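thought: user wants a sequence for this fold. calling inverse folding tool.
action: design(structure=
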């Protein structure tokens, strides 16, 4: 394994500790005029200590996984005739996209096996706390919108992903990057069978079945983060979206969480 990984720089994601405690999850329409029904009511949620990756999994990090496991590469790597053993040229620091929920889960399982650490996909509650902090601010950087802090459609239309460190000024209270903009990110949480409304509503309850890791593939999973395709009204820490776990798009990737207890 050491020889196999030798050509690569550090492949393990940089993790940030999120301390135990309550945070405000969801949206308050009095404070946030863009609050959507599936984000309500806003409510406190207690989470134990955990860690979240500072950035989404990059092409370079994902390439190490592909090389080690011979897992199928993202479809655009094949279109451009890139070897599955190497990250796309000049895009190694871009987020890995065109990955399904199952691809993301397989990456986490591989990372667990080679490190001995409890890597996994984050729940949507963990994702949201890491994005907005304990006080429930609307954006990672505060409560006032600033299009210069993230990669979404604005005055100049965003047309693609950007490197994961391109917007340090948009960091969350804990220092995580791209928690709004760049890509949608898979979580472990279930949404439900229908597009709308969600089967799993608020208040968030991790014991009501929404964190079932082996649910049928036709039950949609929650995504968080908002991609470069989206506009300001959707670009908020509380925004929820959903796809089939088999879907893959140029705007969807993931970041990992780490259990500490």
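)
observation: tool returned 261 residues.
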């Amino acid at each position: 394994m050491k020889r196999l990984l030798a050509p690569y720089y550090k492949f393990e994601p940089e993790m940030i500790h999120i301390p135990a405690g309550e945070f405000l999850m969801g949206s308050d329409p009095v404070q946030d005029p863009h609050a959507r029904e599936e984000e309500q009511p806003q409510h406190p949620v207690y989470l134990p200590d955990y860690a979240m990756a500072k950035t989404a999994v990059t092409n370079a990090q994902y390439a190490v996984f592909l090389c080690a496991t011979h897992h199928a590469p993202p479809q655009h790597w094949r279109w451009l005739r890139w070897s599955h053993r190497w990250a796309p040229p000049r895009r190694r620091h871009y987020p890995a996209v065109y990955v399904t929920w199952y691809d993301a889960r397989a990456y986490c399982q591989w990372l667990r096996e080679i490190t001995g650490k409890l890597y996994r996909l984050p729940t949507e509650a963990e994702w949201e706390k890491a994005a907005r902090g304990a006080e429930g601010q609307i954006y990672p950087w505060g409560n006032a919108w600033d299009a210069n802090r993230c990669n979404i459609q604005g005055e100049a239309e965003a047309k693609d992903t950007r490197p994961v460190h391109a917007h340090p000024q948009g960091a969350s209270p804990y220092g995580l990057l791209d928690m709004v903009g760049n890509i949608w990110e898979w979580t472990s949480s279930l949404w439900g069978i229908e597009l709308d409304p969600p089967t799993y509503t608020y208040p968030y309850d991790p014991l009501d079945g929404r964190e079932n890791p082996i649910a049928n593939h036709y039950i949609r999973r929650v995504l968080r983060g908002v991609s470069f395709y989206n506009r300001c009204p959707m670009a908020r820490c509380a925004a929820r979206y959903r796809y089939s776990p088999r879907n893959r798009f140029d705007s969807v990737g993931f970041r990992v969480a780490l259990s500490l207890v």
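thought: summarizing for user.
answer: Here is the designed sequence. The beta strands are 15-18, 21-25, 43-47, 50-53, 119-120, 184-192, 220-224, 241-243, 252-253, 257-259.
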